[in-house]
Design a protein that fits this description.
About 50% of the residues lie in helices and about 15% in strands. The chain is α+β, with helices and mostly antiparallel strands. Strand 2 and strand 3 (about 175-180) form a beta hairpin. Helix 2 runs antiparallel to helix 3. Residues about 1-10 have low confidence and may be disordered.
Length: about 300
Amino acid sequence: MNQSNPEVQTEEITLENLPQIWKKLRTELTDYISNPEVWTGLLFTLLKVILIYIAARVIIKIANKALEHMLRERSRGPIQFDQRRTKTIGKLAANIITYVVNFIMILMILSQFNVNLGPVLAGAGVVGLAIGFGAQSLVKDVITGFFIIFEDQFAVGDVIQTGTYKGTVEEIGLRVTRIKSWTGEVHIIPNGTINQVTNFSINNSLAVIDVNVAYETDIDTALKVLKEVANAFYEHSVDMVKAPDVLGVHMIGTSDITLRLTAECKPNTHFAVMRQLNAEIKKAFESHGIDIPYPRLVTYHRTEKAES
């Protein structure tokens, strides 16, 4: 038994009916644009998108404030945690919260435009798998960043050196680490390239000061003055952790004698202590008449004539 299918009426486009087709399309477009329901729906969609964006920003701000409050309360509790590590984990957690909330916000905005999220999520999974195989350096950066934080190799605020880069750690992410040098440059280093790290902020630093005096100087007097200056400086210094040690004569040179003293200081403060101590030693030596050797040039003039 044969069943007849309804025929689909299609209008053939020719040069003769092209004006009518264009007029029909223009009329339909005009009706669509002038339809108030279309504009009402678009307005509601835009309002929803704006509300979603504002809600995401508010959630991120509230979450960051709650995280800061939690870390602050934890630092005041009976069980004390390392402030360096707490600060680093706090910044990392804030970055993760921002990424997660922004990702959910993008999905919700796409859903407002009737985008099917199933294929989008499936495609994201495939892309993530492809990135995992193709971008091995990215995976290496993430894994290295995790172990840097987990093992507490360095933290935000530490002064470190890795390779040729030395400076203060501003941020530790899962992929990159930001280091600011003392001259102001910011170095962005992938975590996967960090092989060796020297951390200058964990233990106290040692200031080593060498002072040269002339051979004519009385060594006992010079050492006594040196010790008095170092002890007086220690009394008002906030960077020294204990009194300096005057070690005595360190070296006898061809034109001078080197005296050495050491001072244990707080991390990364030994350079400032050395500069200040050098200035105080110079003033004390001048007041006690102790000469600091400097290059001298002696010129001999021949007065006798050469014999013929």
